[in-house]
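Practice problem: predict the structure.
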Amino acid sequence: MAEKDHMNLVFIGHVDHGKSTLVGRLLLDTGHIDPHLIEKYRKEADAIGKGSFEFAWVMDGLKEERERGLTIDVAHKRFNTNKFYFTIIDAPGHRDFVKNMITGTSQADAAVLVVAAPEGVQAQTKEHVFLSRTLGVKQLIIAINKMDVTQPKFDESRFNAVKEEVSTLLRTVGFNLEQIKFVPVSAFTGDNATKASDNLSWYKGPTLLDLLDEFVLPEKPTKLPLRWPIQDVYSITGIGTVPVGRIETGVMKPGQKLIFHPSNKSGEVKTIEMHHEEIPEAVPGDNVGVNMRGVSKNDIRRGDVAGPLDNPPTVVKTFTAQIAVLQHPSVIAPGYTPVFHCHTSQIACTFEELQKKLDPKSGEVKEENPDFLKTGDIAIVKIRPTRPMVIERAKEIPQLGRFAVRDMGQTVAAGMCIDLEKKEM
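Answer:
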């Protein structure tokens, strides 16, 4: 299993632009799923009036997702290319489910942004691009999908127009366009997903599958202290308590003693499993289940972070952050208390002070102690969580220093922690 480098890859983009279908297509064409399964899904999809959803169903296993034709939670699938083995995270595009998308994207090393050629950039394309940038995804492929339904079909000028539209968006949030690849595909018909297509003979570049192998493995932050945010906790008969989550920094080995904050419970690592196989150690990027001694299922919960006893995760009383206001229907003023999504925790936090408003282009201070913030503002703010929360300074442990702010069913801001006031545990 370890002979290939491992990467977490997230598929993002607006609802109905074909993310799940594209993932299903890649898995089918590379032999990761049985064609009989797709045939079975096709019949079932037709039977409930969801023809063309058969590929998406590979990822969308929940009954409700099938009936609604949407991706609700973040699904994980393993997938091998010539160079890497990927854990594919299919992130929801539908706006009700962005909080799940944030969890998915903050776990990713690289992303494929899917944009449908007929529609081009939509509201959520913008939101997902901004979030992936703020949440630290640096490598991006843009798959311009549904080329089979442009007018005329497989139209080069439509591809170029959407490419230009997306490029403008990427420039505004600070991506370096020289490092970003664009590829025309049709997930439904399979053109250019894994094999070059005569229908797209004007396109001379690599297929989507080939582009995935051009990603660069990010250096793993193994030298940093262990930080392991918990996604779920299971109690498994005959084994015991098994917390599950992705290692963000550091190295975990059996026999290690860990403390979970903010729950303030400690225990010992007995065994570590990944993809149902026991492994001798876990490193950043590994999604693991760990059999813990000395911790019961009710002691810890999603949103806790485990770390070593001598360098425990930081629980804060308050923290200072730099934020970007993505969209807010009115204004953000002191006292505002939306939900902060940081690693796997979701905690209501209060804006206690608005300290400085910055110029988005230069980063210079534009205004001291502004009365309010509105869409488009970049600011330094002081935040007080309503209950204990783990967050680290972004310059020390960036993986635990980033967050998104959600309210009224949308992401209103995103940012990173620049300083903090510790809470004594």
